[in-house]
């Protein structure tokens, strides 16, 4: 078997286990599958052979987390004997002619509808808010399907269509840029967040993949006074979630009713808190520098449903701890000042994560992220390596905080560290100290921007 065949085979093994995790894990986004039924009956029928996701998120499911934990670890163990280095990432869908590595029925169906709509002349809609060139992708009946963020329209990319960003880029990068992040890597960061979300069974990030789309609605610039012919742009595509509002607006509504404890039933409060803590886990691991209250959404139907969606994960996966890169700006986690952050961890979630976070799991997670980030051949490989040192450091701290049962408000106060591997191929032990070497970050000379 040659290398390419081996890669495809391994990716398939990985994939089929992922599907099981996705459909068996609680709290999975039904999002746009609700809308998919009309045109995608065939696919929906195929999907129905898989075990059904519970309609409502039941917190007691975390008590029996071993079920999903077993499937997560078995998928990792199965691939662990082989080096999955340099395998094409299943999170990158190169073109619609490529055989899809990603077998996610919901995502593929959504993307098929998006492509059909664009080919039929439905124009993506530029999102006015925000700093990047981001587009809502709609179908002919004006149903929103996804959010596409082309790489070359990111905040500091050459084809960013927002004038405000143009001036910031030209005049004052120090005050607005983030020196700890790789420029124009937002689309990989968005997708990486979705990868972490799926691997840790958090189910709070709407599915996101790297894809290519072309439409005259995107910004192509002009050459010699003439508009440039549209060509396929690479970027991140995230499934649109319906019926959600900005967290800031929802939290204000709850505050007006006397606070979340008064506005929500005890069961709703618990469901919300679990999802809030999952967002903490996600943001902490990816070291998100941009989780303000418009970058997470809440869908709340009193007495029926309460769900959280962590969107806009494009400013994460730094190469250095952000605190170490600027003397003028701080990048605190937006949620750390909320009262929810002082609540103790949900016991089921805590146990689940503690069992999951083995050196082997961390090793495989880092390989997956590396394979995704190396998709961008313009990125220096060393940068991916140092991104992973930060990522491992965050996982190291998270595990220690979970073991010590420190709530999120304490977790963020842990000293920043960088973690390297001690092993060469695979971690041979379950002992973190034997597998990894942690080093505290030196903050003595922060940069100026
Ligand atoms: N997956 C999604 N589902 C539903 N709505 C979304 C989704 N992604 C984005 N939105 C909506 O679009 C708005 C802008 O999206 P987003 O914050 O991702 O864009 P941005 O240009 O990166 O902005 P920023 O300046 O915050 O970085 C959000 O506030 C939200 O209302
Ligand atoms: Mg935003």
UniProtKB/TrEMBL annotation:
Protein name: Phosphatidylinositol 4-kinase type 2
Single Gene Ontology BP annotation: Golgi organization
UniProt membrane topology term: Peripheral membrane protein
Subcellular location: Cell membrane; Membrane
Keywords: ATP-binding, Cell membrane, Kinase, Membrane, Nucleotide-binding, Transferase
Biased composition (Polar residues): 30-39
Source organism of the structure: Steinernema hermaphroditum
Chain segments carrying region Disordered: 1-54
Reactions mediated catalytically: a 1,2-diacyl-sn-glycero-3-phospho-(1D-myo-inositol) + ATP = a 1,2-diacyl-sn-glycero-3-phospho-(1D-myo-inositol 4-phosphate) + ADP + H(+)
GO MF term list: 1-phosphatidylinositol 4-kinase activity; ATP binding
